[in-house]
Specification:
Length: about 525
């Protein structure tokens, strides 16, 4: 095989989805530990602390203990190259999270063994389902009091309408948790609570009837294990690679991230079963990852990672081709050529200049605002990737300034945050006040803190009387004109100049929809 198909074959680009507190951070750390990307557990947090210390705007993040920014980590394990795309866990930042999921080929769903499926798990799962993203389930915290494994499997199946199949089976739980039987590789993996960051390879067994099991485990636990597995095998279908890859079946692993337990099995399964980069749909055709020419899209923009520079990093997901440093890429939205000399690869330990990158990889392209969420870059071909959405904000507020002289600066700040995807900004056609829209209430606080820290502007957010925003589309210019003429005071433009209808309440929105059936009041707008 030539290099490109081999590199594509070896790539695994995935995200971890979880309800806050289920153990996503802990699992991330352990995955990186196995990948040799960090030397000791705790490094993810330690690195985070350093970064936080450097930038003021993350004060909110620090005080609230939530992670606002998503990051990407690239590491190798078992002859594979993994790109782990971290998703912010707090529900206030779901829009960012949703977009992150457009950049991955599979996901790991972490569930707390005592709690089962929680609200955020369900929401994130629904986004994965929309795109048929295959999911491996990791039931975490088995070292604590846990719910019955049958009960948990049943909940995943019923609640998410997803076929489940056991990848491993737990032996006991809480203080009696002894380990798992790896049903795929036929290994008994015992938990050693003393071994810190070293994980045992497990003991090869010749099926569940192997007498080794009787020597290594108490008689009652072996009996229960054999009985449980016989039952679960009867109840659940066997693992089927195709069904998993189509997103209809999830293999379930049990473990304890904090004890490193089950992490190796999870990684080996990702290496063996998770899909390599998928063909991607563009407006004109479907692009195969093995195609020689580079194409890809921006799914996230992060500004001011270094507050001393007004730089922005566009997170670019490569969909096809072999990226080489210095390659000239065409920016579809502006038609301009961009020589990409200083892109970075996010190795878990550090950022490194990207000399080469392959489909599935995510590179960071520094720029001064040219690149926006949803932008496509190609080596010349006219095509645009679709499907990176912008969501109608659920909360709208007006921005007020202490010093009205700073209006121009404020506008720049707001446009910049809108381009970054942190919020949306609407300029009403009538009146001078800007309206800002977000998905969760905490985002207003984060924004005010960032406007202060990055632009030295004191701004306040206050109620504006609107409760929803909808992008307006209409194929009939006469109807559109009539609508615009009679609703001028409720119209605004977003940062790209697209028309938006601001409604005071659900009734008013409903009324407009009834009165103008030919107009589409869109809740999402595809970025282009
Ligand atoms: P996140 O919010 O999903 O990122 O969750 P964290 O990784 O920060 O974990 C939340 C809490 O659960 C922390 O106090 C962790 O130490 C703890 N935790 C994570 N994994 C385990 C585990 O396997 N067993 C136990 N007992 N606690 C865990």
């Amino acid at each position: 095989m030539s290099a490109l198909p081999q590199e594509v074959h070896n790539r695994r680009t995935f995200a971890i989805i979880a309800h806050p507190d289920a153990g996503k951070t802990t699992l991330t750390e352990k995955l990186l530990l196995f990948g040799g990307a960090i030397q000791m557990a705790g490094a993810v947090k330690a690195r985070g602390e350093q970064r936080r210390a450097r930038s003021d705007w993350m004060k909110v993040e620090r005080e609230r203990g939530i992670s606002v920014t998503a990051s990407v980590m690239n590491f190798d394990y078992a002859d594979r190259t993994f790109n782990l795309v971290d998703t912010p866990g707090h529900e206030d930042f779901s829009e960012d999270t949703y977009r992150t999921l457009t950049a991955v080929d599979s996901a790991v769903m972490v569930i707390d063994a005592a709690k089962g499926i929680e609200a955020q798990t369900r929401k994130l799962f629904e986004v994965c389902r929309l795109r048929n993203v295959p999911i491996i389930t990791f039931i975490n915290k088995m070292d604590r009091e846990a719910r019955d494994p049958f009960d948990l499997m049943d909940e995943v199946e019923r609640d998410l309408q997803l076929e489940v199949t056991p990848g491993s089976w737990p032996i006991g739980s809480g203080p009696d948790f002894r380990g798992c039987y790896d049903l795929i590789r036929d290994r008994l993996v015992l938990l050693d609570r003393r071994q810190g960051d070293v994980a045992s390879e497990g003991i090869q067994c010749d099926g569940l009837d192997d007498p080794k099991l009787d020597q290594l485990l108490p008689a009652d636990q072996v009996a229960k294990l054999r009985e449980d597995v016989a039952m679960v095998r009867e109840l659940c279908p066997p693992f089927d690679l195709e069904t998993y890859r189509e997103g209809h079946q999830t293999p379930v692993f049990f473990g304890s991230a904090i004890n490193n337990f089950g992490v190796r099995e999870l990684l080996l399964s990702l290496a063996a079963y998770a899909p390599s980069p998928r063909p991607q749909h563009a407006d004109t055709r479907t692009v195969q990852p093995e195609e020689a020419k580079v194409t890809g899209f921006v799914f996230k923009v992060q500004a001011n990672m270094d507050p001393n520079h007004r730089d922005r990093i566009a997170f670019f997901r490569l969909c096809s081709g072999h990226f080489r440093r210095g390659v000239k890429l065409k920016h579809m939205r502006s038609g301009k050529l961009l020589a990409v000399n200083n892109a970075v690869l996010f190795l878990a330990r550090d950022r490194e200049l990207a000399e080469d990158a392959y489909p599935g990889d995510i590179i960071g392209i520094p720029n001064h605002g040219t690149l926006r969420i949803g932008d496509t870059l190609t080596e010349g071909e006219e095509l645009r990737y679709t499907g990176v959405p912008s969501f109608a904000p659920e909360l709208l507020q007006r921005v007020k300034l202490d010093d009205p002289m700073k209006m121009k600066h404020l506008r720049k700040a707001l446009e910049h945050f809108a381009e970054e995807g942190a919020s949306q900004v609407f300029k009403p056609l009538i009146g001078a006040d800007w309206v800002v829209g977000v998905v969760g209430p905490l985002q207003f606080e984060v924004l005010a803190a960032r406007i202060d820290a990055e632009y030295d502007i004191k701004a306040k957010f206050e109620s504006c009387g609107y409760d929803s925003a909808r992008w307006i589309e209409c194929d009939d210019p006469v109807v559109l004109k009539s609508f615009l003429d009679s609703n001028r005071s409720a119209l605004a433009e977003d940062h790209d100049g697209a028309l938006v209808y601001l409604a005071r309440n659900g009734w008013q929105l409903n009324r407009a929809q009834v009165d103008y059936p030919k107009i589409r009041f869109q809740k999402t707008r595809e970025q282009n």
